[in-house]
UniProtKB/TrEMBL annotation:
Domain of life: Bacteria
Organism: Streptomyces musisoli
Coiled-coil portions: none
Catalytic activity: 6-phospho-D-gluconate + NADP(+) = D-ribulose 5-phosphate + CO2 + NADPH
Lineage start: Bacteria, Bacillati, Actinomycetota, Actinomycetes, Kitasatosporales
GO molecular function: phosphogluconate dehydrogenase (decarboxylating) activity
Keywords: Gluconate utilization, NADP, Oxidoreductase, Pentose shunt
Name of this protein: 6-phosphogluconate dehydrogenase, decarboxylating
Amino acid sequence: TSAQIGVTGLAVMGRNLARNFARNGYTVAVHNRTVSRTKALVEEFGQEGDFIAAETAEDFVAALERPRRLVIMVKAGEPTDAVIEEFAPLLEPGDMIIDGGNAHFADTRRRERELRERGIHFVGTGISGGEEGALHGPSIMPGGSKESYASLGPMLEKISAKAADGAPCVTHCGPDGAGHFVKMVHNGIEYADMQLIGEAYQLLRDVAGYSPAQIADIFRTWNTGRLDSYLIEITAEVLSHVDAATGKPFVDVVVDRAEQKGTGRWTVQIALDLGVPVSGIAEAVFARSLSGHAALREASRGLAGPKPSPLSESEAAAFADRVEQALYASKIVSYTQGFHEIAAGSEEYGWDIDLGAVSAIWRGGCIIRAAFLDRIRAAYDARAELPSLLSDETFAREIAAAQDDWREVLTAAVRQGVPTPGFAAALAYYDALRAERLPAALTQGQRDFFGAHTYRRVDRDGAFHTLWGGDRGEVSA
Ligand code: NBP
């Protein structure tokens, strides 16, 4: 017999993905650089389905039916190139290499181009949901050629997560690096979501005076409403967890320095290149980075702050409701920014990404899965060319209803000295977009003054320059 799919790289992700394929009735060839991992998989989980264990690259490739579908689940970066170089010479035109790692989309574009010249389809595929998702159904974001998706799509649909309406959480995002780009922005949005939740927690604790256990209950309540999402759900779990060794809330015994693997940073770096304002995602990345500067924080601990002014019990409850409004409004802005970046990437690279389809495949399996994504999909269904999520009527109305509370929460945060860069960046973005006039006019004047960079006028076409050092007359540039 031959295998319909092969997986090489059998650490947590690859192993679970291979099991997912096998549990769905596919015969799966498995391979790993270190053979013991391959053996361990078949020994432990062999009864779950049909596996063909291959010790060598040649055996692995020989086990696959043609055209071959070969999934790589190794560490992103050089290991991925090494594995491609190992297998590509053994493949034939029409075969497919699927990279399910967290590759940078620019690497994926390069690999796709190089392999296309050799007649091989390279399918850079974002996979979200961690090891549990890989086993029980991840959200899958494939790029690559249409042809490869025709062959792979049905298999990916089978192993993917299913949304509440039963739809598989996979779509062909677009050619070459489109899938890894979408996955990158997914992770950027995840950073922003986590930062906003963190700020909500801090406000409930430091301004409203609630304990972690009380805040867990508040999050549980929120999770039954429009904020219903995996991240809110696990936040309640983490906040209610008590450290066994000390009896203290778990969140109080964890060192408060957030780490990162890089996809959030990429989202911001690429947004800078594309000129897309993803201020909420950027603040989330910077907040993690700031938290890690232990010496700087230690040196700053004595700096002056406002006097604490605790809230009464009823004030605290009202404040918690306001924080929910602020969190929801800020979340709308984060997604607005993330989808703007996907639209800009799609435009730049000619990917033709369907934003509604992307929001639909994030409804299940992945870390940012949420009821909220149904609304985003509805917004794009109603109007595929929506210039921004904020221009959707429903979102505009919801923000309008939330904005007073949003502003109140930020006012309280500023007064009481609680850092809320995510909430603040989101509100500033909202206010800047709706502003009749921005100080950018003044910026243009300054640029013209010191660098003769010229400016445009509101009342006439053309570029102009004022003779700042002379009689201040205006000339056409
Ligand atoms: P790791 O990222 O820890 O990679 C370990 C695997 O890479 C092992 O199979 C290892 O083989 C193999 N490998 C390395 Br390292 N260098 C190699 C080389 N030069 N040649 C051949 N194989 C090599 O595994 P993971 O955590 O399962 O993640 C796999 C991919 O999925 C990564 O790109 C990751 O970013 C992505 N991802 C992970 C998650 C998650 O939650 N962990 C979620 C979504 C995506 P060995 O056994 O011989 O050392």
